[in-house]
């Protein structure tokens, strides 16, 4: 997984599966076949958090490339939850869609639900395709110890793993193999994931980074993408966005930046680097018409690996290293005035530019904010969306200082991915961005 990060009010994209469509395209028949079916949605757990570990896994089991495209919708709720049918017969499980993590894992408690109507835990005894990795499996006893995934043999001689997070919580269980049912006629081969026996969260994680054990890598996805609708807290029904596994039909409109990749020898010399993350070549920040005086080097990994810029679906807000954040904060205070800032207030121990005043007026004073990348690509956040309503009449600027959370890097979170297609083109090692009205035009 990527970085240790407790997302205090994690903005999850709820993939509701109220309408799920699958498409299959072949060379002889370019017309896609569509499948759709309804699934019940549940409120999110208040304990949900897409935690991350710094580091990655080194062993894998891969399968053949899926010859079709998969499409689903999600609802933007308070806290990216994917509801995926797992096992034989399928049991629907809720998992955080996390591009910063590698190992996928689900809850395997055989306990009654704590509240109604929750997502039930996965019951291995009900699945004929479930199998546990034995202690003799290479992943459990790698030739080179993998300190990012501590494994051991449990009393039953099964492979046991444990993840410890920066906030002191942990998830542990057995490494298992299980099938994912993407449609009645599209079932993955058994993939490696964790079956958590002890975790505080109600949802699992769907790891989607470059790691060999991520869902994307094991299933040999060529591309996947999502489109985050605008956050609208006043609506009783959450707006719906889009999620694709496979080629996105809108990709001809996307603007791409190359992902920075690192060799094993480079990674070994950079202890603060996550080599499996989607690291993008960010070049600067623009507020209004002014490009801030921030050296490009601040957004690139230094000799120790600190400073890489990551696009992450599992982090809510955007975080910048201190040198970059200081310039952003300085400009915001110049535009808004220091007296408007809520004194001594830090939201979620991460956002310290918060305001009590008129959010619309403050947004106008700040203007549009743009993240700048190579090839002239920009991700522009309109002035109406630079502040987030955190409750109690307080609105905070959606960029924080990464060192407040102990993160040595720049992370672009999903708050700044609203109304934007974000495509991860694994085949070509690039990330694409395309503006969209995610709640309206995505499914038309």
Provide an overview of this structure.
It is a single chain. This protein has four helices and 31 strands. A hairpin with a 4-residue loop joins strand 24 and strand 25 (378-381). The chain is mainly β and 444 residues long. It has helices at 215-218, 264-268, 322-336, 359-366; strands at 13-15, 20-24, 33-35, 69-76, 81-86, 91-98, 105-107, 131-132, 151-153, 159-164, 170-178, 181-183, 186-187, 191-198, 204-207, 223-227, 240-245, 255-258, 282-287, 290-291, 309-311, 318-320, 354-355, 369-373, 378-381, 387-391, 394-397, 399-401, 410-412, 420-425, 430-435. The strands form seven sheets. Strands 1, 2, 3, 4, 5, 6, 15, 16, 17, 18, 30 and 31 form a twelve-stranded mixed sheet that branches. Residues 1-68, 73-79 and 113-119 have low confidence and may be disordered. Helices cover 7% and strands 32% of the residues.
Keywords:
mainly beta; disordered N terminus; 4 helices; 6-stranded mixed sheet; 444 residues; 31 strands
SSE map:
Blueprint: E1 13-15, E2 20-24, E3 33-35, E4 69-76, E5 81-86, E6 91-98, E7 105-107, E8 131-132, E9 151-153, E10 159-164, E11 170-178, E12 181-183, E13 186-187, E14 191-198, E15 204-207, H1 215-218, E16 223-227, E17 240-245, E18 255-258, H2 264-268, E19 282-287, E20 290-291, E21 309-311, E22 318-320, H3 322-336, E23 354-355, H4 359-366, E24 369-373, E25 378-381, E26 387-391, E27 394-397, E28 399-401, E29 410-412, E30 420-425, E31 430-435
Parallel strand pairs: 1-5, 6-15, 7-14, 21-29, 22-28
Antiparallel strand pairs: 1-4, 2-3, 2-4, 4-17, 5-6, 8-11, 9-10, 10-11, 11-14, 12-13, 16-17, 16-30, 18-31, 19-20, 19-24, 23-27, 24-25, 26-27, 30-31
């Amino acid at each position: 997984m990527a970085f240790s990060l407790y997302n205090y009010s994690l903005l999850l994209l709820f993939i509701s599966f109220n309408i799920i469509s699958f498409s299959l395209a072949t060379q002889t028949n370019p017309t896609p076949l569509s499948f759709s079916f309804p699934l019940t949605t549940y409120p999110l757990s208040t304990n949900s958090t897409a935690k991350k570990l710094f580091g990655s896994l080194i062993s894998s089991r891969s399968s053949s490339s899926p010859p079709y495209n998969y499409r689903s919708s999600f609802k933007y709720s308070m806290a990216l939850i994917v509801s995926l049918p797992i096992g034989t017969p399928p049991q629907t499980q809720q998992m955080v869609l996390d591009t910063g993590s590698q190992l996928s894992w689900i809850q395997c408690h055989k306990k009654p639900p704590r509240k109604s109507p929750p997502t039930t835990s996965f019951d291995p005894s009900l699945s004929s395709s479930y199998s546990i990795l034995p202690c003799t499996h290479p992943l459990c006893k790698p030739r080179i110890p993998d300190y990012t995934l501590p494994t051991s043999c449990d009393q039953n001689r099964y492979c046991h793993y444990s993840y410890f997070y920066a906030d002191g919580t942990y998830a542990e269980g057995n490494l298992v193999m299980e099938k994912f049912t993407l449609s009645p006629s599209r079932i993955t081969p058994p993939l490696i994931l964790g079956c958590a026996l002890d975790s505080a969260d109600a949802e699992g994680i769907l790891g989607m980074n470059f790691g060999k054990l991520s869902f994307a890598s094991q299933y040999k996805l060529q591309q996947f993408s999502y489109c985050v609708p605008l956050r609208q807290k006043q609506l009783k029904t959450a707006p719906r966005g889009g999620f694709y596994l496979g080629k996105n039909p809108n990709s001809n409109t996307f603007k791409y930046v190359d992902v920075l990749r690192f060799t094993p020898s480079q990674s070994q010399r950079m202890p603060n680097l996550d080599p499996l993350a989607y690291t993008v070549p960010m070049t600067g920040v623009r507020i209004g018409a002014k490009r801030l005086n921030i050296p490009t080097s601040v957004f690139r990994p230094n000799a120790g690996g600190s400073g890489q810029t990551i696009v992450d679906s599992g982090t809510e807000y955007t975080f910048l290293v201190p040198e970059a954040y200081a310039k952003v904060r300085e400009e915001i205070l110049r535009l808004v005035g220091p007296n408007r800032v809520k004194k001594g207030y830090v939201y979620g121990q991460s956002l310290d530019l918060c305001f009590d005043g008129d959010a619309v007026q403050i947004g106008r004073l700040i203007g549009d904010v743009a993240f700048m990348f190579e090839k002239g690509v920009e991700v522009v956040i309109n002035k109406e969306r630079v502040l987030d309503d955190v409750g109690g009449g307080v609105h905070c600027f959606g960029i924080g200082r990464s060192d407040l959370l102990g993160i040595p890097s720049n992370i672009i979170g999903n708050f700044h991915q609203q109304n934007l297609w974000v495509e991860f083109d694994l085949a070509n090692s690039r990330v694409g961005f395309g503006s969209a009205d995610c709640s309206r035009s995505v499914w038309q």
